[in-house]
Records
---
Amino acid sequence: MSNRFKRIISVILSVAVAAMITACGSGNNDHIMTDSAADAAGSVSDTTVIGFSQLGAESDWRSANSESMREAFSADKGYELLFEDGQQKQSKQITAIRSFIQQGVDYIVLAPVTQEGWDSVLLEAKEAEIPVIIVDRMVETEDDDLFTCWVGSDFYLEGRKACEWLHRYAASQGLSGNDLHIVNIQGTIGSSAQIGRTAGLEEYSAKYGWDLREETPGDFTQAKGREVMAQMLVTYNNINVVYCENDNEALGAIEAIEAAGKHAGPDIAGGDILIMSFDGVNQTAINYCLEGTIACIVECNPLHGPRVENIIQTLQNGGTPDKLEYVSETLYSSYETVREVRIDSETYPVTLLTQDVIDTRAY
Ligand code: GZL
């Protein structure tokens, strides 16, 4: 019996009981199913209840992602969205999912803070016959039947795109191998976004002989990015590339670089520190990329609301969505020297960032 059908039955029973109590009092028992019962049942049957466990509100990317989900699952479109903010804590997300199961929602959507540790609560949802859609970051499970499907980004590809861009840009500057002294301000450790982006950097550092000096978590936040960058600048005197695993960390890193009397920009040989970043959502970061303070931003598209809604519509219509749906994404840079990158014989064009591109983007 579906959760929606259970909700309809409970509404009808509660209204019917109320009607009988009223009828007993007033002697009017010519019908049990009052108009309000039919209305209530009708409204329940028309409403799709979505339980969404969002991981937090740590970045501009996350805010845009939450807004996209709220817009996609609005009441005027026949949805009831139960939105729970996990505040970057897996325990809070697990509690939210259990609450959704108790409430008998129609679908659970999970944006997991980290990859591991979801099997038991996903099994509880499966036993309750509630489909679970994973969005954005990925979960690592013993059995991928524990979730219906996933939609998000290929973070490992994002990392390799960034590094191939860096390799080509460095070559255009007459730099290679050990000329590059790189630090990585990582995202939330254990998140698939951090795992993939870090894997790309480590692979290409080994491949091209880059000097990867340190990798330290910046938790995808500006404050932590600033703190980590400041410490790195004290520790090392030859950093010339900072790989930031999201834009908010890049903003913090730039603040620390400037506070140390150094300059974020394109002229590595001239003493600039080159900034690489991911997302392309924060407007300050995009403007920094336009003016060259940030050399390259690998797009990470946050607008998953319509994608998740399409999946739910497919399920509602008895269809089977793809198990994994990867979002296609570009790279942004205002430097004209690198116009494309090649990964595994696939070519990815670089979007030359102009004000017009900024003005016409979807977010
Ligand atoms: C990526 C997403 C990451 C963003 C960060 O899909 O999970 O989390 O890159 C965000 O900005 O905090």
Note: The chain has twelve helices and 14 strands.
---
Amino acid sequence: MQFDLTEEHLMIQRAARDFAQNELKPGIIERDEHQKFPAEQIKKLGELGFMGMMVSPEYGGSGMDAISYSIVMEELSKIDASTSVVVSVNNSLVCYGLEKFGNQAQKQKYLVPLAQGDVIGAFCLSEPEAGSDATSQRTTAIDMGDHYLLNGTKNWITGGSTASTFIVIAQTDVAKKHRGINAFIVEKGWEGFTVGPKENKMGVRGSDTHSLMFNDVKVPKENRIGEDGFGFKFAMAALEGGRIGIASQALGIASGAYELSVQYAKERQAFGKALADLQAIQFKLADMATEIEAARLLCYRAAWLKDNHLPYAQAASMAKLFASETAMRTTIEAVQIHGGYGYVKEYHVERLMRDAKITQIYEGTSEIQRIVISRELLK
Ligand code: CAA
């Protein structure tokens, strides 16, 4: 068993850490407050090869492993989870699914620009009445011979207004239930496709989240991914990998809050000594550090299983469940350690606390992760 990161992993970690400090930290409070999308930062992340990290160089990607992806997600999320969620959706939910299940033509046309970071991708599964219950798709894609006719509404779509390529999950044959669901590649600007207003969110406010409306959108047959009826399995497989990304995002939010707390505890004086000399604070920091280390090991284990082509659905859900709960607990404690300063924006921990909450909700709530974990245990 090997617990050390390789030289290559350490190099990628340094690059992501430098990027987060130099490119993400400046302006982070304003971007959060004004819900400003980090367009320039995403462009630069594309140039660094972080938008298609695990995609083969044959399709414009960086050919890195899932451990590297986890490392990068942690480092970016220490500072800016609004940027890292865009990175995660593009890498896991869009690029991974296209590379694994798309055909040659789809990969050349859509995957290459996504992996190179020239365009952004979005993954459209959730609906007003189908969040956790993902099989209850109301969006329909009726087979019209040479094309499908797409109708319906998708909710809470990350990249709703900035993405150019959308993977849309829709029901083609209601009688077949989840086996009648398909996944389609839809382009921005197609007739009948409209983007709703931006959601005013509690956290990850720099990322753009929108509803999308499809009204008789013509989707060419060649834009269906996989065999007829493969869409639900496609979505579940993409989400498995996505959960490693969001687990690592939660890990980063927790470790960002922890690092700020250690620094503050050493600097801040109270009762004639540094906060760090008070046992009440030391115990909090010890609990934070222990949980973060456990979350990191779960993230790396899930990524390692994926890299070694072993089943990883349960491991990814365990990582996401534990890391997101850790992010919530850690950020609440970080605000507590900072006292009044923790409650104002300049000290960053209140933003991290707001950002932490979404990691318990998107790509499957904590309750969904428990369903996935327990099914594997009991089957
Ligand atoms: N890979 C491949 N196939 C899978 C799979 C996987 N990981 N998991 C399930 N399937 C298949 C099953 O084998 C089954 O197929 P058959 O019937 O043909 O054998 C089929 O899918 C249905 O599976 P289940 O019976 O397990 O389906 P279910 O409805 O009972 O439960 C669930 C599934 C786990 C609850 C699922 O609905 C789920 O994960 N829900 C949460 C959805 C979610 O995560 N949404 C996030 C939206 S995206 C997002 O958040 C992005 C963002 O903004 C950041």
Note: The mean pLDDT is 97.
